[in-house]
Predict the structure.
Amino acid sequence: MNNPLISVIIPVYNCEKTISIALESIINQTYKNLEIIVVNDASTDNTKKIVEEISKKDTRIKVVDSESDPNRFDKKLNRNVNAGYSARNTGFKYAKGALITFQDADDASFLNRIEIQFNLLEKYNSTHLTLDWINFDEKYLNKKLLSEKFLNNLKILSPNDLYLMSQRSKGFVARISTSLNKITPFHLKRLRIIHRLFFGSYENYPGAGNSPLFKREVTEKVKFRNLKERTWPSFMGRGADKDFNFQVAETFKNSHVCFIPLYMWRVEKKTENYEGEIFTE
């Protein structure tokens, strides 16, 4: 492939305080052959205006509007359960790259994230490859990860590892009837007496499941799904990324996870995996 075009899809919804940081971490990637598709998911703040201003300085950026999503809010669960899923599918429609990845609008990537992710995908002849993450920290912004110590002793989950995990995580009902799984309301799936029938082993997709790199062919068979259609939802009613990644692992049987922390996730929970081990340039 040498240096193929990679499409980076960035869904945005009311993230005027963080989108500039997220977008800058992609604009300044060491891998330059990118198209950056920012999908405005019905923002009501200045997010879209900020992105449009930045796009004037970089012709790789395209700003588009997401299709409407009437199922965004689940009244039974009293929470937004479909954040970003339709925006990612909208991004697929505009993506021209041979490969596709994502960046969340409130996170950031080390500047060599996509370069290393692409090199690993090529090395293992993978269809779909995810990395690992660390907690967001401003001190790492606009820096490259010194990756040699990770690459020299790289921990990997193989396609078979991930396929078996997808099957363990697949609820019994989804195994025997996808139709029954779809028509059963999610608030019933979570009931104490029957939830084991719908949720399998509860394993999350490992690593940074929100930023896989995958071949374009994936989008011909796998899309992001709304909550009622997900085979691998989270127990709290989201899990669009989890469902997508397990779909790909099951469908293509050629997914890898490489545990090198190139993604910065702005999340409350802490990862202790790399405490004291992060070096940058």
Q: What stands out?
A: The radius of gyration is 18 Å. The mean pLDDT is 92.
